[in-house]
Amino acid sequence: MFNLSKSSATYGSRMLKDSTSGVAIQDGDLLWAFDDNQEVQCFFQYSPVLGKELVFKIDTIQPFIISLNNHVFSAQLEDSDSWKWIKKTTSETLSGLHSIFLSLPLADDQMAILSGLGQKKSDINLSIDAKSEAKQVEKILSMFQPEWMDLSVDTSFMISDSLLYNLRNTNMLVMSIDSGSEENINQFSKLKNLQNLVLLKWGPETRAGIDFTKFKALSSLSLQESDLRSTRNIRLPVNIRSLFFKGCNSLTDISNVATNTKLATLGFSGCEKLKEISAIKGMKNLTWLSLPPSINQSQFDSLIPSLPSLQVLELIHCDSLKNIDAVKSLKELRSITLADKNIDISSLYTLKNLELLVIGTSSDSDSTANKQMQQLKAQLPKTFIVPGGGFCLGSGWILLIIPMVLLGIFLSKRIRQTPKGLNS
Fold first, then answer.
1. What CATH code is assigned to 2-414?
2. What is this structure's pTM?
């Protein structure tokens, strides 16, 4: 499972047979899980209203359906069977439908089915691979009133006043930006409730800029695979509390990042050229930090004690680190993600109060990795310890939610029985 709002698909929690898994989250984060071939996938935005125990199943007869607590939760509308199902399904069955995935272009009859779906249940969230189908995007957005959207559009499209009204409840937008389509993003600045923005492949160094100060409600921004070189080249709203850069391989300067005094969560996973991180030192309000791969042992040992509020720490491919003894000074630390081949795991043994440890392993069958996991579990009996990587859905899984002030931990366990079809 991947947290798209923070670590994206850089690293996540893996599900092994008859095992428990977990991932650190915050209220409002967008999560993504999928099967081995990414043929079945599920996006959902975490909220405490989802409850403390979530039972997900993939319908093995109708594999385009994912259910939550025996109610339809997510649907991929791609093949003819899925469209036949959505057309005939009753309003009662659709009452729990959280999101749909669409791949454009759609035929006229499919657009008509969507229109009917929007009339039955307008608050469905949308994941749309639109390609260059701008007109269809506009029509589809006029049918629904989503709280979150994941849009991939190759060309420009218009957000009319009527569409703005339709999107008045949208609080999260995930969007990829192709050359010349920056205006697609700028239009969404008019959404008064847009709090979370995830942008893929934005190129501020070579293309038009985006003035994030116009996004008045924005509190969380994640930039993925951007050619951004310096945080000085972007203007952020004063309310920004979460800022994540992922796979931004041109980023070398973050010298002004601490001027955003309300920042509580900050990340640089996969930013391979970022070597100077002294600006983070002393940011006493940080509760979540993902460090860049280039951090060395001296930097780590100096930085970590200066961040007393840290609760979540992600070390993904920080292969210069040999130990993480410095985290012993963090009294509030609750979760560590560790994907580093050179760290001595014995430096984790004293972290008796750690609640979640996501740690990289070589493979499911690797006896050395299994032995390492058993050693950790013996030393940290109160800690949920799970392998890192990707998260495959299998036929079903259970997510147990442990509510916390800052984060929740998803606990997952495979269901051994093969679930029956929802309509069988």
1. 3.80.10.10
2. 0.86
